[in-house]
Design brief:
The chain folds into two domains: about 5-15 and about 100-225, Rossmann fold; about 20-95, Putative phosphatase, domain 2 (DNA polymerase, domain 1, Orthogonal Bundle), CATH 1.10.150. Helix 1 (about 20-25) packs antiparallel against helix 3, helix 1 crosses helix 5 and helix 3 (about 35-55) packs across helix 4. The protein has a six-stranded parallel beta sheet, sandwiched between helices. The mean pLDDT is about 95. By secondary structure, it is of the alpha/beta class. The chain has helices at about 20-25, 30-35, 35-55, 65-80, 85-95, 105-110, 125-135, 155-165, 180-190, 220-225; strands spanning about 5-10, 115-120, 145, 175-180, 195, 215. The protein contains ten helices and six strands, in the order E-H-H-H-H-H-H-E-H-E-H-E-H-E-E-H.
Amino acid sequence: MPITTCIFDAYGTLFDVAAAARLAAQEPGREVFASKWSQIAQDWRLKQLQYTWLRAVADAHTDFWKVTQDGLDYALEAAGLDDPELRERLLSLYWELSAYPEVPAMLAALKDAGLQTGILSNGSPDMLQGAVDSAGIEDVLDAVLSVQDVGVFKPHRSVYDLVGKRFGCTPDEVLFVSSNGWDAANGAGYGFYTAWVNRAGEPMDRLPWKPQLVMSDLTGIPAAAKAAP
């Protein structure tokens, strides 16, 4: 069936998760952090994701803000930094993550083509709203869906169910886009037509399913939606 709905993961897909650490590293007086910010950002993101998976399998759900804080605390300790003011600054900046440069025009092109657009994210509703507002993309999104509605993190199938419930579409009408290879793969296993935005050129995850498309950024998404089988 033709694609009617384009759904995006949020963090790392539409929004640059390294932006908070990058901006903090540029501020005066943060020379020690500036020398370590890249590794801290990487560890922060990895632990944030790992804690969602571990909580999902342990049936110990919490909101995404909690795992975001826990991931940062781990990353700062691993870097040997004990700086409460820096911690608060990084968390504050996380509510104002910038979108990748191509995002506004890409979403506008999808809307111009008559497609429904939305976010499907582990993020809590208030975090997602903050990022959407900061990026100025609310007018090109039809819905922002959060796992808080089902009480479990991705890749649980009940999360992907939220798309059909909100948009009234079948999985094969959905182009699902994620920067997480595991998310794009599980979306494909669910029945979505999926695109993995592999900005870092990482290897394909060894999972039972694979995304149908692999892209280096989001520029080609409107064309992919139009050309989908």
